[in-house]
Amino acid sequence: MPIAFTEKNRIFHLSTKHTSYLFRVFENDYLFTLYYGKKLRTADMTHHWQVYPSGFSPIDQTFTDHDFSQDLMMLEYPVYGHGDYRAPAVCVRFPNGSRLLDLQYEAYSIQKGKLPLDGLPCTDGAEETLYILLRDRKSGLGVRLSYSVFYEEDVIARSAEIINSTNDTVILTNAMSMSTDLPIGDFDMISLDGTHIRERQIERKPMRNGTQSVESRRGASSHHHNPFAVFAAPHTTEFAGDAYGVMLVYSGNFLLRAEKDAFSSVRVQAGINSFDFTWELAPNESFITPEALLSYSDKGLNRLSQQYHDLIRTHLGHTKTVGKRRPIVINNWEATYFNFDEQKLIDLIGSCKGLGIDVFVLDDGWFGHRDDDRTSLGDWFTDKRKLPNGLYPLIEACQSVGMQFGLWFEPEMISEDSELYHLHPDWVIGEPGRTFCRGRQQLILDLSREDVLSYICGAVRRILRENRISYVKWDMNRHMTDAYSRLLPPQKQPEIYHRYIKNLYRLLDTLTKEFPDVVFEGCSGGGGRFDAGMLYYTPQIWTSDNSDAIARLRIQYGTSLAYPPVCMTAHVSASPNHQLGRTTPFQTRGLVAMSASFGYELNPLNLTDDERAMIAEQTAQYKKIAPLVVSGDFYRLISPFEDDDCAWIFVSKDRSEAFAIYARQLLRPASNGRRIRFAGLDPEADYYIEELQRTFGGDELMYAGLSVPVLFDFHAVSYTMHRVN
């Protein structure tokens, strides 16, 4: 059984294929963590229980052992005001001003499967879910903890529901999705940090005493920090050592923190950021937190990543795209920017004939009177100056060359120079009478409002109903400031961030269900909202506005620590690159981009005959290897953060097929060739490598390695492998 309860010792044991998570109802009905790590066959664990000397930690006099202090124990969902000075998981303010809580165990239940989370995106298909009800016996306030076990993927999904069972309205000021105290030991904290066009760079630092965190206060998960972190033993590598992962399924303001105390215990918490957040709970109302996904690996970082990859690909989202090859896209943005008309676009589309591309996506500039980024956001009707006949001629042109048509939207934004703003200036986020901050010359619609939600849904729905559109790129090109809603009463103003995100999820849920055959791609200045919450509705996300292949090595490598490559959109762009000015071989650009959901971001009218032939070869190659990108195991081989080179490999689940790339960032003088030791192959099998037209043993390729050529800067090669016995 994935979840077991031992009545004698009141121990809960959650089991996945390779891990165990145990906690106990202790004396006075407090819930304490016992163990999280490599799987245990059976676990009494009572003999491991220790009570530390109290020192300056306050003692709970109701316990038999008067040295007991919550300040020194591993707590499953800690509170403020009962002796624990470390970070609490939940904070509430009562009408009399009290913030004190004392949560004690009341009941549990175990159910097959898993329930949804009140309009929040979450995983599904768990084997079993454990619900634990805790109660503050003085006030009556309750907290229901949920633990869903994904046995094969070695993941436990956690969430909390705060239930106002009192007779008064209370104010929730902090609500973490999960809290767990890791086993005592040294840890490195690994996070994915960066900024616009330099997203999800791997940062690894030893944990020090005190609190370390990654967070967003920008209204979105952000380019700067990702709602994911790993806590790894200092010796842990890609393929060996202990690693604990935490991922939050949420797209708004988040906090993921770890607090190391004086006794080297590490408390890890993840949830909605308590910065500028409160939530009013009337009697009998409840608040459900976003889902947090916990996973543990004793086989290094790469195995931890694969566990998250399998979970996301199998248990996150309902769209038809999940589990299938994504269409090969060509986007016109870097080809034309705002400067196009109907004939120019038809010429671009016609030039795609014979290239093997599936979808032409018309990016920004098709609506209102949009000639630059200062106008028209919110006016979702075609610009008759550029497109006098609407989208129909473009769709017909696509079909004539065997492609489908896609369209860019930025529905959450508004321009002051727009019909919508002149009609509804009150729909903007911001306080009347104050000067607004602008980002990319635009403001944000107050999606916490029902009328705004209705307008956006109707505007996008109308375009999708009236036109044969197969692909939507959903963009968001600035983050939130001036967080004020003209409809929320004063005491509810700090609810705007979460209300915005919940209505965004409602909007996406409605549209993706109404148009199930449309592929929705997420974007926020590239990777400014690349998180599991958005992946539920948009199963691929434009990974970065930086399309330079060499910069993308680090961006895609870092992103893969948490998210499967099939969720990343990557395009071949023009050279020199528009963001960095770097000149990169066409082959390198193709190999890096086809290690994700593949496409192009260039002007096909400017291509040479040789480049057109290379695109046709690349699209044909991608269609052959796409099953590996969609569902294969991904292994990181050489880190571009630690080496002048980069290498990775996709291997099918049955180990019969593989695709690897090796790329050079920098060639140093007098460099020799090197060997790459591959991973994931069958050591007992032989593999034919297409590019070398030779057969090698799987054991040789993994243990001795393959000698690779000395490459010049920015060059790359691929190895396509087929098992022959």
List the helices and strands and how they pair.
Blueprint: E1 3-6, E2 11-15, E3 19-25, E4 31-38, E5 90-93, E6 103-112, E7 128-136, E8 142-150, E9 155-163, E10 170-182, E11 188-195, E12 198-206, E13 210-215, E14 225-232, E15 243-249, E16 254-260, E17 266-272, E18 279-281, E19 286-288, E20 291-297, H1 300-315, E21 329-331, H2 333-336, H3 342-350, E22 359-362, H4 392-400, E23 404-409, E24 413-414, H5 419-423, E25 443-444, H6 450-466, E26 471-474, H7 496-514, E27 519-522, H8 532-537, E28 540-542, H9 549-559, E29 568-573, H10 586-593, E30 597-601, H11 609-631, E31 633-638, E32 645-651, E33 657-664, E34 674-676, E35 686-689, E36 694-697, H12 698-704, E37 706-708, E38 716-723
Parallel strand pairs: 21-22, 21-30, 22-23, 23-26, 26-27, 27-28, 28-29, 29-30
Antiparallel strand pairs: 1-2, 2-3, 3-4, 5-10, 6-7, 7-8, 8-9, 9-19, 9-20, 10-17, 10-18, 11-12, 11-14, 13-16, 14-15, 15-20, 16-17, 24-25, 31-32, 32-33, 33-38, 34-37, 35-36, 35-38
Helix pairs in contact: 3-4, 6-7, 9-10, 10-11
Short overview:
The chain is an alpha+beta fold.
Q: Could you give a short account of the major beta sheet?
A: 10 strands, antiparallel
Mean pLDDT: 95
What is the gyration radius calculated from CA atoms? 27 Å
Helix and strand content put the structural class at alpha+beta
Percent of residues in β-strands? 25-35%
The low-pLDDT segments are none
**Span between termini:** 38 Å
* Contiguous helical run count: 12
Shape: globular
- Per DSSP E runs of 2 or more residues, the count of β-strands stands at 38
Instruction: Give the helix level as a range of percent.
Output: 10-25%
